[in-house]
Amino acid sequence: MAQFTAFSAPTLNVFEFLSSSDNALTCVLLPNSREQQGSSHRIIAPKDYVTAEQVVAKNVAWPVSVQSVVVTSRKITQALVDDVIATLGDAILAVLPIQSSIGYQSLELKLTSTIELNTLSHLHEKHAVDCNLVSNLPSLSKPGLVVLDMDSTSIEIECIDEIAKLAGVGEEVSEITELAMQGKLDFSQSLRARVAKLKGIELNLLDQIANDLPLMPGMKDLVTQFKAHHWKVAIASGGFTYFADNLKELLGLDAAVSNTLAHDGTVLTGEVVGEIVDAKVKARTVVALAAEYGIELEQTIAIGDGANDLVMMEQAALGVAFHAKPLVQQQADVAINQGDLGAVIALLSRR
Protein backbone atom coordinates (compact mmCIF):
# COMPACT_ATOMS: atom_id res chain seq x y z
CA MET A 1 0.00 0.00 0.00
CA ALA A 2 1.33 3.44 -0.93
CA GLN A 3 2.02 6.00 1.76
CA PHE A 4 -0.39 8.90 2.20
CA THR A 5 -0.27 12.38 3.66
CA ALA A 6 -3.08 14.21 5.45
CA PHE A 7 -3.74 17.89 4.78
CA SER A 8 -5.93 20.37 6.64
CA ALA A 9 -8.57 22.25 4.62
CA PRO A 10 -10.29 24.88 6.80
CA THR A 11 -12.77 25.79 4.08
CA LEU A 12 -13.78 23.32 1.42
CA ASN A 13 -16.70 22.83 -0.98
CA VAL A 14 -16.80 19.04 -0.85
CA PHE A 15 -18.71 18.68 -4.14
CA GLU A 16 -16.36 20.94 -6.09
CA PHE A 17 -13.31 19.27 -4.61
CA LEU A 18 -14.53 15.74 -5.36
CA SER A 19 -15.61 16.74 -8.90
CA SER A 20 -12.13 17.86 -9.92
CA SER A 21 -10.05 15.38 -11.90
CA ASP A 22 -6.99 16.87 -10.19
CA ASN A 23 -8.19 15.32 -6.93
CA ALA A 24 -8.90 11.82 -8.26
CA LEU A 25 -6.42 10.20 -5.85
CA THR A 26 -7.71 11.88 -2.69
CA CYS A 27 -10.54 11.54 -0.22
CA VAL A 28 -12.16 13.92 2.23
CA LEU A 29 -12.57 13.03 5.90
CA LEU A 30 -15.57 14.93 7.17
CA PRO A 31 -15.38 16.66 10.57
CA ASN A 32 -17.78 15.16 13.07
CA SER A 33 -20.83 17.43 13.35
CA ARG A 34 -20.69 17.16 17.12
CA GLU A 35 -17.24 18.73 17.19
CA GLN A 36 -16.70 22.46 17.37
CA GLN A 37 -18.16 24.25 14.37
CA GLY A 38 -15.54 25.36 11.89
CA SER A 39 -13.48 22.20 12.27
CA SER A 40 -11.21 21.65 9.32
CA HIS A 41 -11.79 18.98 6.74
CA ARG A 42 -8.91 16.60 6.26
CA ILE A 43 -7.72 15.53 2.81
CA ILE A 44 -5.94 12.20 2.49
CA ALA A 45 -3.73 12.02 -0.60
CA PRO A 46 -0.58 10.27 -1.90
CA LYS A 47 2.58 11.58 -0.26
CA ASP A 48 3.64 13.52 -3.39
CA TYR A 49 0.24 15.23 -3.82
CA VAL A 50 0.72 18.95 -4.52
CA THR A 51 -1.40 21.34 -2.46
CA ALA A 52 -1.07 24.62 -0.62
CA GLU A 53 -2.97 23.22 2.35
CA GLN A 54 -1.26 22.61 5.68
CA VAL A 55 0.26 19.16 6.25
CA VAL A 56 -1.34 17.48 9.26
CA ALA A 57 0.36 14.11 9.23
CA LYS A 58 2.56 11.98 7.00
CA ASN A 59 2.56 8.24 6.38
CA VAL A 60 -1.08 7.88 7.35
CA ALA A 61 -3.27 4.93 6.40
CA TRP A 62 -6.05 5.18 3.84
CA PRO A 63 -9.39 5.21 5.71
CA VAL A 64 -10.74 1.79 6.62
CA SER A 65 -14.48 1.58 7.08
CA VAL A 66 -17.01 -0.99 8.26
CA GLN A 67 -19.31 -0.32 5.32
CA SER A 68 -19.52 1.73 2.13
CA VAL A 69 -22.35 3.35 0.21
CA VAL A 70 -21.97 3.80 -3.54
CA VAL A 71 -24.31 6.23 -5.27
CA THR A 72 -24.67 5.94 -9.06
CA SER A 73 -26.42 8.44 -11.29
CA ARG A 74 -26.30 10.01 -14.73
CA LYS A 75 -25.00 13.11 -12.96
CA ILE A 76 -23.81 13.58 -9.40
CA THR A 77 -24.93 17.07 -8.39
CA GLN A 78 -24.13 19.41 -5.52
CA ALA A 79 -27.68 18.96 -4.20
CA LEU A 80 -27.29 15.17 -4.22
CA VAL A 81 -23.95 15.28 -2.40
CA ASP A 82 -25.38 17.66 0.19
CA ASP A 83 -28.44 15.43 0.71
CA VAL A 84 -26.39 12.25 1.08
CA ILE A 85 -24.01 13.86 3.58
CA ALA A 86 -26.90 15.35 5.55
CA THR A 87 -28.71 12.00 5.63
CA LEU A 88 -25.74 9.91 6.75
CA GLY A 89 -24.33 12.50 9.12
CA ASP A 90 -21.83 11.23 11.66
CA ALA A 91 -21.81 7.76 10.09
CA ILE A 92 -19.56 9.14 7.33
CA LEU A 93 -15.84 8.62 7.72
CA ALA A 94 -14.72 9.75 4.28
CA VAL A 95 -15.99 10.65 0.81
CA LEU A 96 -14.09 9.50 -2.27
CA PRO A 97 -13.90 11.46 -5.55
CA ILE A 98 -16.67 11.29 -8.12
CA GLN A 99 -15.88 8.74 -10.86
CA SER A 100 -17.23 8.88 -14.42
CA SER A 101 -17.93 5.90 -16.66
CA ILE A 102 -19.95 5.55 -19.92
CA GLY A 103 -22.55 8.18 -19.15
CA TYR A 104 -22.74 7.51 -15.41
CA GLN A 105 -21.08 8.90 -12.33
CA SER A 106 -20.53 7.27 -8.96
CA LEU A 107 -19.70 8.48 -5.50
CA GLU A 108 -18.47 6.33 -2.62
CA LEU A 109 -18.87 7.18 1.04
CA LYS A 110 -16.97 5.18 3.65
CA LEU A 111 -18.86 4.72 6.92
CA THR A 112 -17.81 4.32 10.54
CA SER A 113 -20.96 2.37 11.41
CA THR A 114 -23.46 0.19 9.60
CA ILE A 115 -26.74 1.62 8.33
CA GLU A 116 -29.93 0.25 6.80
CA LEU A 117 -30.31 0.90 3.07
CA ASN A 118 -33.81 2.29 3.53
CA THR A 119 -32.14 5.26 5.24
CA LEU A 120 -31.39 6.49 1.71
CA SER A 121 -34.65 5.46 0.03
CA HIS A 122 -35.93 9.05 -0.22
CA LEU A 123 -32.98 9.93 -2.46
CA HIS A 124 -33.80 7.42 -5.21
CA GLU A 125 -36.64 9.24 -6.89
CA LYS A 126 -35.74 12.75 -5.73
CA HIS A 127 -32.39 12.59 -7.51
CA ALA A 128 -32.93 9.62 -9.89
CA VAL A 129 -30.08 7.69 -8.27
CA ASP A 130 -29.33 4.19 -7.09
CA CYS A 131 -27.79 3.83 -3.62
CA ASN A 132 -26.20 0.54 -2.63
CA LEU A 133 -24.34 -0.80 0.37
CA VAL A 134 -21.17 -2.56 -0.80
CA SER A 135 -18.31 -4.46 0.75
CA ASN A 136 -16.05 -6.57 -1.46
CA LEU A 137 -16.86 -5.66 -5.05
CA PRO A 138 -15.11 -7.53 -7.87
CA SER A 139 -12.29 -5.53 -9.45
CA LEU A 140 -12.20 -4.33 -13.04
CA SER A 141 -8.41 -4.39 -12.85
CA LYS A 142 -8.46 -8.21 -12.88
CA PRO A 143 -10.10 -10.64 -15.37
CA GLY A 144 -13.61 -11.66 -14.40
CA LEU A 145 -16.89 -13.15 -15.56
CA VAL A 146 -20.34 -11.56 -15.78
CA VAL A 147 -23.36 -13.79 -16.44
CA LEU A 148 -26.67 -12.20 -17.37
CA ASP A 149 -30.20 -13.41 -17.60
CA MET A 150 -31.61 -12.76 -21.09
CA ASP A 151 -35.33 -11.97 -21.05
CA SER A 152 -36.14 -8.58 -19.45
CA THR A 153 -32.47 -8.20 -18.50
CA SER A 154 -30.25 -8.36 -21.60
CA ILE A 155 -33.23 -7.69 -23.87
CA GLU A 156 -36.40 -5.74 -23.21
CA ILE A 157 -38.87 -8.56 -23.92
CA GLU A 158 -39.86 -11.99 -22.64
CA CYS A 159 -39.39 -14.05 -25.81
CA ILE A 160 -41.88 -16.74 -24.89
CA ASP A 161 -44.56 -14.08 -24.37
CA GLU A 162 -43.82 -12.63 -27.80
CA ILE A 163 -44.14 -16.06 -29.44
CA ALA A 164 -47.41 -16.60 -27.62
CA LYS A 165 -48.78 -13.28 -28.87
CA LEU A 166 -48.10 -14.31 -32.46
CA ALA A 167 -49.85 -17.62 -31.74
CA GLY A 168 -52.88 -15.93 -30.18
CA VAL A 169 -52.28 -17.28 -26.66
CA GLY A 170 -50.37 -14.29 -25.34
CA GLU A 171 -52.49 -13.51 -22.31
CA GLU A 172 -52.54 -17.10 -21.06
CA VAL A 173 -48.76 -17.46 -21.33
CA SER A 174 -47.87 -14.03 -19.90
CA GLU A 175 -49.93 -14.74 -16.77
CA ILE A 176 -47.90 -17.90 -16.14
CA THR A 177 -44.64 -16.05 -16.89
CA GLU A 178 -45.41 -13.36 -14.33
CA LEU A 179 -46.19 -15.89 -11.60
CA ALA A 180 -42.94 -17.71 -12.32
CA MET A 181 -40.92 -14.47 -12.23
CA GLN A 182 -42.38 -13.67 -8.82
CA GLY A 183 -41.37 -17.10 -7.56
CA LYS A 184 -44.98 -18.24 -7.10
CA LEU A 185 -44.64 -21.17 -9.54
CA ASP A 186 -41.93 -23.77 -10.00
CA PHE A 187 -39.95 -22.60 -13.00
CA SER A 188 -39.58 -25.94 -14.76
CA GLN A 189 -43.26 -26.76 -14.44
CA SER A 190 -44.27 -23.30 -15.57
CA LEU A 191 -41.96 -23.48 -18.58
CA ARG A 192 -43.35 -26.81 -19.73
CA ALA A 193 -46.89 -25.47 -19.29
CA ARG A 194 -46.12 -22.40 -21.38
CA VAL A 195 -44.25 -24.27 -24.09
CA ALA A 196 -47.11 -26.74 -24.42
CA LYS A 197 -49.35 -23.84 -25.47
CA LEU A 198 -46.95 -23.12 -28.35
CA LYS A 199 -47.54 -26.46 -30.06
CA GLY A 200 -48.08 -26.06 -33.79
CA ILE A 201 -46.48 -22.63 -34.14
CA GLU A 202 -44.54 -22.30 -37.38
CA LEU A 203 -40.79 -21.81 -36.97
CA ASN A 204 -40.72 -18.86 -39.33
CA LEU A 205 -42.73 -16.89 -36.78
CA LEU A 206 -39.78 -17.14 -34.42
CA ASP A 207 -37.60 -15.42 -37.01
CA GLN A 208 -39.71 -12.27 -36.66
CA ILE A 209 -38.56 -12.06 -33.03
CA ALA A 210 -35.04 -13.49 -33.25
CA ASN A 211 -33.95 -11.16 -36.04
CA ASP A 212 -35.04 -8.01 -34.22
CA LEU A 213 -34.26 -8.48 -30.52
CA PRO A 214 -34.66 -5.17 -28.64
CA LEU A 215 -31.51 -4.83 -26.56
CA MET A 216 -31.88 -3.52 -23.04
CA PRO A 217 -30.51 0.06 -22.82
CA GLY A 218 -26.87 -0.06 -21.76
CA MET A 219 -26.36 -3.68 -22.86
CA LYS A 220 -23.92 -2.86 -25.65
CA ASP A 221 -21.98 -0.54 -23.34
CA LEU A 222 -21.85 -3.21 -20.66
CA VAL A 223 -20.43 -5.83 -23.03
CA THR A 224 -17.94 -3.39 -24.58
CA GLN A 225 -16.65 -2.14 -21.23
CA PHE A 226 -16.32 -5.56 -19.60
CA LYS A 227 -14.53 -6.88 -22.70
CA ALA A 228 -12.17 -3.90 -22.59
CA HIS A 229 -11.25 -4.94 -19.04
CA HIS A 230 -10.60 -8.55 -20.15
CA TRP A 231 -13.79 -9.95 -18.65
CA LYS A 232 -15.86 -12.78 -20.11
CA VAL A 233 -19.54 -12.04 -20.76
CA ALA A 234 -22.17 -14.80 -20.96
CA ILE A 235 -25.91 -15.43 -21.00
CA ALA A 236 -27.63 -18.01 -18.78
CA SER A 237 -31.30 -18.02 -19.70
CA GLY A 238 -34.49 -19.88 -19.02
CA GLY A 239 -35.39 -18.75 -22.53
CA PHE A 240 -34.48 -20.44 -25.76
CA THR A 241 -31.42 -21.07 -27.92
CA TYR A 242 -33.29 -19.67 -30.91
CA PHE A 243 -32.86 -16.22 -29.36
CA ALA A 244 -29.89 -16.61 -27.00
CA ASP A 245 -27.64 -17.85 -29.81
CA ASN A 246 -28.64 -14.86 -31.94
CA LEU A 247 -27.79 -12.55 -29.05
CA LYS A 248 -24.42 -14.26 -28.56
CA GLU A 249 -23.52 -13.71 -32.21
CA LEU A 250 -24.86 -10.15 -32.28
CA LEU A 251 -22.85 -8.98 -29.25
CA GLY A 252 -19.84 -11.29 -29.47
CA LEU A 253 -20.62 -12.97 -26.15
CA ASP A 254 -18.36 -15.73 -24.85
CA ALA A 255 -21.15 -18.19 -24.04
CA ALA A 256 -24.92 -18.61 -24.08
CA VAL A 257 -26.77 -21.32 -22.15
CA SER A 258 -30.52 -21.71 -22.69
CA ASN A 259 -33.34 -24.14 -23.45
CA THR A 260 -33.99 -25.88 -26.76
CA LEU A 261 -37.48 -25.91 -28.27
CA ALA A 262 -38.45 -29.17 -29.93
CA HIS A 263 -39.78 -28.99 -33.49
CA ASP A 264 -40.37 -31.25 -36.48
CA GLY A 265 -38.58 -28.98 -38.92
CA THR A 266 -41.66 -26.88 -39.62
CA VAL A 267 -43.61 -26.31 -36.40
CA LEU A 268 -42.99 -26.47 -32.66
CA THR A 269 -44.05 -29.69 -30.95
CA GLY A 270 -44.81 -28.02 -27.62
CA GLU A 271 -41.89 -29.63 -25.77
CA VAL A 272 -38.45 -28.73 -24.46
CA VAL A 273 -35.43 -30.83 -25.40
CA GLY A 274 -33.07 -31.99 -22.64
CA GLU A 275 -32.47 -30.52 -19.19
CA ILE A 276 -34.34 -27.32 -18.46
CA VAL A 277 -32.19 -24.32 -17.62
CA ASP A 278 -33.68 -23.48 -14.23
CA ALA A 279 -32.25 -21.64 -11.24
CA LYS A 280 -29.83 -24.44 -10.29
CA VAL A 281 -28.53 -24.83 -13.84
CA LYS A 282 -27.93 -21.09 -14.05
CA ALA A 283 -25.90 -21.24 -10.83
CA ARG A 284 -23.92 -24.21 -12.16
CA THR A 285 -23.22 -22.20 -15.30
CA VAL A 286 -21.49 -19.46 -13.28
CA VAL A 287 -19.21 -22.00 -11.60
CA ALA A 288 -18.54 -23.99 -14.79
CA LEU A 289 -17.69 -20.95 -16.91
CA ALA A 290 -15.46 -19.50 -14.19
CA ALA A 291 -13.56 -22.79 -14.05
CA GLU A 292 -13.36 -23.00 -17.85
CA TYR A 293 -11.89 -19.50 -18.14
CA GLY A 294 -9.66 -19.78 -15.06
CA ILE A 295 -11.48 -17.02 -13.20
CA GLU A 296 -11.79 -16.83 -9.41
CA LEU A 297 -15.36 -16.88 -8.10
CA GLU A 298 -14.51 -13.66 -6.26
CA GLN A 299 -14.38 -12.09 -9.72
CA THR A 300 -17.86 -13.12 -10.85
CA ILE A 301 -21.08 -11.14 -11.27
CA ALA A 302 -24.60 -12.39 -11.97
CA ILE A 303 -27.32 -10.02 -13.20
CA GLY A 304 -31.03 -10.83 -13.33
CA ASP A 305 -34.55 -9.67 -12.62
CA GLY A 306 -36.62 -12.70 -11.61
CA ALA A 307 -36.82 -15.35 -8.90
CA ASN A 308 -35.20 -17.83 -11.28
CA ASP A 309 -32.01 -15.76 -11.07
CA LEU A 310 -31.62 -15.75 -7.29
CA VAL A 311 -29.52 -18.92 -6.96
CA MET A 312 -27.21 -17.73 -9.74
CA MET A 313 -26.86 -14.35 -8.05
CA GLU A 314 -26.09 -16.00 -4.73
CA GLN A 315 -23.43 -18.19 -6.36
CA ALA A 316 -21.61 -15.22 -7.87
CA ALA A 317 -19.48 -12.84 -5.82
CA LEU A 318 -21.86 -10.01 -6.69
CA GLY A 319 -25.56 -10.45 -7.42
CA VAL A 320 -27.16 -7.52 -9.23
CA ALA A 321 -30.94 -7.10 -9.29
CA PHE A 322 -31.75 -5.16 -12.45
CA HIS A 323 -35.18 -3.47 -12.45
CA ALA A 324 -36.17 -6.62 -10.63
CA LYS A 325 -39.15 -8.05 -8.79
CA PRO A 326 -39.37 -6.99 -5.11
CA LEU A 327 -38.31 -10.44 -3.88
CA VAL A 328 -35.15 -10.28 -5.99
CA GLN A 329 -34.25 -6.77 -4.88
CA GLN A 330 -34.52 -7.82 -1.25
CA GLN A 331 -32.10 -10.71 -1.66
CA ALA A 332 -29.59 -9.31 -4.16
CA ASP A 333 -26.29 -7.73 -3.11
CA VAL A 334 -27.07 -4.56 -5.03
CA ALA A 335 -30.01 -3.24 -7.05
CA ILE A 336 -30.26 -0.98 -10.07
CA ASN A 337 -33.69 0.61 -10.43
CA GLN A 338 -33.02 4.06 -11.86
CA GLY A 339 -30.18 3.42 -14.30
CA ASP A 340 -29.67 1.11 -17.26
CA LEU A 341 -27.12 -1.70 -17.53
CA GLY A 342 -24.30 0.80 -17.91
CA ALA A 343 -24.72 1.60 -14.22
CA VAL A 344 -23.13 -1.77 -13.40
CA ILE A 345 -19.82 -0.50 -14.76
CA ALA A 346 -20.17 2.75 -12.80
CA LEU A 347 -20.68 0.73 -9.63
CA LEU A 348 -17.36 -1.05 -10.21
CA SER A 349 -15.38 1.78 -11.78
CA ARG A 350 -13.40 2.68 -8.65
CA ARG A 351 -12.28 -0.90 -8.02
Polypeptide structure, described:
α4 runs antiparallel to α5. The model has no long low-confidence stretch (mean pLDDT 91). With 351 residues, this protein is an alpha/beta fold. The protein contains 13 helices and 16 strands. The protein starts with a strand and ends with a helix. α9 links the parallel β11 and β12. Strands 1, 2, 3, 4, 5, 6, 7, 8 and 9 form a nine-stranded antiparallel beta sheet that branches. It has a seven-stranded mixed beta sheet with strand order 13-12-11-10-14-15-16.
Quick overview of this protein structure:
The chain is an alpha/beta fold. Helices cover 34% and strands 26% of the residues.
Task: Give keywords.
about 350 residues; about 35% helix; 13 helices; nine-stranded antiparallel beta sheet; alpha/beta; elongated; single chain; 16 strands; seven-stranded mixed beta sheet
Low-confidence region ranges: none
Strand % is: 25-35%
The number of E-state strands comes to 16
Helix content: 25-40%
* Tally of individual helices: 13
What does the main sheet amount to? 9 strands, antiparallel
Distance between the termini: 15 Å
Category from helices, strands and their pairing: alpha/beta
SSE ordering: EHEEEEHEEEHEEHHHHHEHEEHEHEHEH
Rg over CA atoms, rounded to whole Å, is: 23 Å
- Please state the average pLDDT score: 91
Global morphology? elongated
